[in-house]
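Summary: Need help interpreting a holo structure output

Steps to reproduce:
1. Submit the protein chain below together with the SMILES for 2-acetamido-2-deoxy-beta-D-glucopyranose.
2. Request a joint structure prediction with the ligand placed.
3. Inspect the structure token block that comes back.

Expected: a single structure record containing both the chain and the bound molecule.
Actual: see attached output.

Input attached:
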Amino acid sequence: MRTLLLASVLFAGLMFSSAVPLSLPIPYHAFCRVMWLFAVPCDEVSMKVAQQIQAFYPGYKLVSASAMIIRANHTSLDGLQAENITFTFNPTVETGGCRAGGQSVSLGFTSLLDNGLNYCNLYNLLSVSGLTSSLGFMEITNEWACLGYGQNTCKASPALIFK
Ligand SMILES: *[C@@H]1O[C@H](CO)[C@@H](O)[C@H](O)[C@H]1NC(C)=O
Ligand SMILES: *[C@@H]1O[C@H](CO)[C@@H](O)[C@H](O)[C@H]1NC(C)=O
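--- attached output ---
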């Protein structure tokens, strides 16, 4: 029950908080915003995310990495689609864990229905690096914050990583 309450508070934050240092994408770009909770320290989470981005080169390119923010680019193999990816990391004082925010935004104006591309850009980094099975992992988002979230196929088929 407490977890559920915490989740809804965090979700409200995901949707409306201006404290989250992520720029809101303008409506014409497909985008996905997700929040994750971990029972492991942010150092560990951010290190794994940064390492996974580098391991996925050249599909992903690390733009910058600090303790608080990681920026990356993603491009499809055919070079036709490009997305900006941003991760933020905030330690959760009460649990010694980490609250991470992720955002992927399509740079093109082509489609508002991205078939979960932006969600998969984020999710693939977490699943392949093993973070989705780390202690206390919890994912918070929905169709409003993350286009195509309900129809994403990357959970069933990791092979779509470089689509
Ligand atoms: C990332 O994409 C931006 C355009 O959004 C570009 O200006 C920048 O050079 C790219 N950085 C890398 C490391 O590919
Ligand atoms: C993509 O990221 C670059 C910096 O890496 C920024 O200048 C640009 O405005 C971003 N584009 C969108 C659509 O968010």
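--- end attachment ---

Reviewer comment: Residues 2-160 form a domain with the TATA-Binding Protein fold (CATH 3.30.310.80). The first helix runs from residue 2 to 16.
Status: needs-info
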